[in-house]
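Minutes, project check-in

Agenda point 3 was the complex the collaborators sent over. CS summarized: two entities, 969 residues total, and the question is how they sit relative to each other. Sequences were read into the notes so everyone works from the same version.
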Amino acid sequence: MGYKTEWFKGIFPALVTPFSADDKLDEAAYRELIRFVLPHVDGVVPCGTTGEFSYMTLEERKRAVEVCLDEVNERVPVVAGTGCTSTRETVALTQWARDAGATGALVVAPYFLKPTFNEVYDHYKAVDRVGLPIVLYNIPQCAGTHFKWWTAEGGLLDFDNTIGIKDSSGDLPFLDAMFEKVKGKVSIFVGHDEVVQPAFAAGADGAILASANLIPDVWQRVYRATQEGDLETAQHWQQRVQKLVRIIVRCSSTQAVKEGLRMMGIPVGDSRHPIMPGGGFKREDYEELRLQLEALGKIAPANVVYDLGERQVETQLPATPQTPRTISGFTLKVGEGFAGPPFQELAHVDLLLGLKDGPVGRAIERAMEEWGEERGLRIIVERPCTLLVPTVTIRTAKQRRLFYEHAAEGVNLAIRLSIEDGFLPAAILDDVVLIANVFVHPAASIAKRVEFNNYKATRHAIRKALEGRPTVEELIREKAAARHPFRYAP
Amino acid sequence: MPIKVPWLKGVFPALVTPFVRKTEEVDEEAYRRLIRSCLPHVDGLVTSGTTGEFPYLTREEQRRLIVIGVEEAGGKPVVAGCGASSTQEALTLARDAKDAGASAALIVTPYFLHPSDKGVYQHFYDIATGVDLPIILYNIPQVMDRYLPRTVVEDLADLPNVIGLKDSSGNLTYTMELLEYAGDRIDIFIGHDEVVLPALAGGVSGMILASAQVYPEVWQEVIRLVGEGKLAEARARQRSVQKLSRIFCRYGGGVAVKAALKMMGLDMGPPRKPLKAVGGALIHETRAEIRLELEKLGQIPVEETAFEYPSGPLTERFGDLEITPETIDAHDLRVGSGVTGEGLNKVQIDLVAGSKETPLGDAYALQLTYPLHGREALTTILEPALTVRPATLLLPQLSQKNLRQANMIYGPTQSALARAIVDALEAGRIPPAAVDDEVMIALATVHPRALDRHALHQSVYAAATQALAQAFADAREEG
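CS then shared the predicted structure for the full assembly.
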């Protein structure tokens, strides 16, 4: 017996659902997103987990699937997410998807009230009777139930219309058991972006992925290379996107993907509450995701003018649509960066950037003259002149080493890379100076983490200072929900 | 049928094991001092338990601790921790304990290689039948990664030598289940400091606690009050040690207990490596909190410091920033002040705001180059990576003498100031032009012994809101 269908293989993005500023389904943005991914994909999945199906009304889910079907216009299969908590609703929505013309339905394990195995079995049996090709969906991180062994022969996959399974657990022993038992009969899809290549290499038929909204072309390369037996190429591309997809999978994927798309010039709004900007997808994740997209060439350099008052300098830097195209106010700019973990090695950088003949330049000059040596200040970079200041008292030789060698090296690297990427263009390096007030925890031990976290925090701080982030809008939006870590007692 | 022993009730401290610095040798004299300090308030002792770092002790060291315990206990029972991952080793330790004069052996659920329920039963069975010493079972899933299954306990309770169980899980549904199924045959002890009162009310016979060497008298009172049915008073006593108990249970274990004892004048030395005396499970910030709680509890004296809230003309309060009344006047700087709160929660915020192009811009930059004087300025943030605008520095008015004091500034004070600023932005009190063009510096005077973060946050918010309102009173006309 062969596969039940031939069409269910390859790369399928789990499409995000764009919402407008007034929290409505943004159909135009949805169509634009579909047009963006379509050249690189073998099918699409509207209203999956990444599509925030659990935050949408039934009417909205139906409308999103309709728009998707219309825009795709039969060029690739459309597998609609139709899973609900109750059997009754799931069957009704799957029937609707069948009648609307969906190619198949992705049905998540019934969640929240954690039905037992036999209850789940009967749930899928009822859904199978609808007649639409069904893809089982295992995502224990969200659903709270793991399919485990009972999806194998004699189980759900023996149902007539059940054509495949999407496994988002990242549990490779489970996936291997699937290959052992049902490979070649149903399509086995991987749904965890961090293990796509190993899953392909072991025999997965395709992937449904959140990150395939952003980098469908990369996943298509991984898929094709594996098909052609070129494991080296497949591994190379998995490794190149590993950090990017780790951020997405682990840091509030719906918001992460949406912010990534926005950086790339495809605005799709924010996730619905309670997922929110600056929540699970933290500000440091934003900066790192952006750097990863830049490294993949997904955020193109743009011309930005630095208005230094007396003269203007043009620079080319990887700008997002939010980057101002003219930046002024170089008298004094404030940027803050924060990076961790681990707790004891986290970095917190208060950065000042300003003109040499302004407050920042004068402060450096006076500090070095009057108390620089006594208080452990050091100029660690000549161009742009950068003063390193310890936030807390350095008492031991170990702290001294961690601060002046490792934290300093992190700050240094951030400046070097900011010169390279255009945020600190060569033409301003004699005009602009920096003060980096750097916190190294007295109990820090792991030198490399201190270095790396300070690199990240400083690189973020430089960009935030120049781009004027966070914006007033962000502050107002998040002020009530902000969680200050030292506000509370242990 | 087993018979409950009469002595297994009341308060038993799970003693820390003192070590000499550098050599890490057991410090026997310190151990004796520790026992003498708590003996008047306890009903028995527990040597080499989890708090006593038993996995780091040799067989001979454990034996010595029992011998010393028995010598010092003045006839009170000594329960010897005899935990090991293998049955043979646990049995050996239990036989040693018997020889050394222990009253019972405390045997932890076998760990690391995850035996089956059958294996767990057999482990305790072999020990209970292999040594003529009463056995206390020990459930502590936080470190062993598994529960001692209730059904296994139910069967073990039939063994004549099994006299009790210590439950450190803190999971009261489990404790209640034990009382239901085994409470008629063995004594259940609570081993989780945070839930002593509810466990006692639920019917446990006593407690084996890390904190029972720090404040055993509190626990004796809780027992007495529960016995007398005075639940309201018992709750008040439990609550008085709730935070310390939480710190001991969750944020440092024996290491935190040693830190507390040291503050009380009982230096028990560092833990054995890889544990760190501070900076590992017990972080510096939490250690600072322990001192505060011991002060509140009266276990250590309070240090009084003299200080004053700034007074006099507002424009003269920014001298430390080299901002004089003349500067304020010449550059149209905005100033505002707010005072709120009572007693320890009284807070004063003196605020100056103005263009980056004025001497205030210089003062701002200069503050960030001037560390190590106890009054370090920090950028005001709603949370890390969420810096308020206009950029604002928070400068403590009083010198920060300890980390706990600093925590009050950089935690509740900073976040409340941030919130007040963003609320003022949203309300339009701070004009949009100020966001990019201006900076602010807020001097915060917070009582050096402030301790209620919630109250402090509210005081700072109110004081900062007043200060901002005054500073930006004319801003609407500008806008």
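Noted in discussion: Chain A has two domains: 10-295, 307-478.
Follow-up: revisit at the next meeting once the mutant set is ready.
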